[in-house]
Amino acid sequence: MLRPVFLSGWAGFATLYPRLARACEFLVPFSDDPGGDENAVFTRLDQGGDTLLAWSTGGHMALKHGRCLGNFSRVILVAPFLHFTDSLPERIVRSMISELDRNPVGLLRAFYANCGWGGPGGPDSQKTPSLPRHIDTEKLAAGLEYLLTSVAAPDLPVIQASLTLVLPQDDRVIRPKAARKVAQLLDGAVVKQIPGGHCLSEEILHAFLHEATGAPLF
């Protein structure tokens, strides 16, 4: 069986999901982890595969490059969005960019807390998320700048893949109205609303992959 492709979100480092990072082809946009900028991500999505799980910014990029969804047999989109500022105002994103220069670790820890780290449905195996030894603030800032302007087009081709849309009910990053826009766009997708915040636990994400592939990853 081909390894699933896990397309992570902004600052969704492999250190946050170590078992999934070992079991999947783990891609993190705008970081030192494998992933790269939008063009690099689109190039990888064009290659296709068996199963794609795309979370948050990863889900946005998959929607934006909609034709790629037909390149996978199964697609799971977790907390995707069409335009990031439908949920978080530009002033907040600009504030995050400024804080990256002053206190990147503090900014990331606050961001993860807002994503539900340690809360119901979120990663709770450790009080403090594990961060990479080196944090490339320039790449992270570029990712936030990207989120200010990037919009997923509302017209997608007919998608033949098995498509599941996972919407965390307690998501404080992607607001319900923004999530509903995606659900309306993906007519025919299986929509699963589950308890939890924007950052779901490794066990929950693994369960969706296990259900899709029929085989446990770890």
How would you summarize what this structure contains?
By secondary structure, this protein is α/β, with parallel strands linked by helices. It has helices at residues 18-23, 38-47, 57-64, 90-102, 104-114, 137-149, 176-185, 202-213; strands at 5-7, 25-29, 35-36, 49-55, 72-78, 162-168, 190-194.
Overview of the structural elements:
There is one protein chain. With 218 residues, the protein is α/β, with parallel strands linked by helices. The protein is 38% helix and 17% strand. It is built from 8 helices and 7 strands. The chain has a 7-stranded parallel beta sheet with strand order 3-2-1-4-5-6-7, with helices on both faces. Helix 1 (18-23) links the parallel strand 1 and strand 2 (25-29). The longest helix has 13 residues, at 90-102. The radius of gyration is 16 Å and the shape is globular.
